[in-house]
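Lay summary. Proteins are chains of building blocks that fold into shapes, and those shapes determine what they do. In this project we predict the shape from the chain. Here is one chain we studied, written as its sequence of building blocks.
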Amino acid sequence: MGKIPRPKPARLPEKLLQIRASLGLSQNEMIRRLGLSEELYQGSISDYELGTREPPLPILLKYGQVTGVCVGVLTAILTCVRVSSHNA
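And here is the predicted shape, written in a compact code that computers can read:
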């Protein structure tokens, strides 16, 4: 019996790149910010941002913790809705 492939998170590579770019960090600086200098290398971040590899859950959790972005938003489980208040 074969495994049913799990769907890939929508636009995850684009979101990871956008987060890093908005922080003004290089890929190596992002690794240091994540506190994962021993576990990751520049090519890992590149692969995640290009979509050739998917980051494991602990890495996604670190992204969320360090950047303040909900992991659900990263993986497209949740979407953010901006609510504006209008004075009536």
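What the prediction tells us: The longest helix spans residues 12-22.
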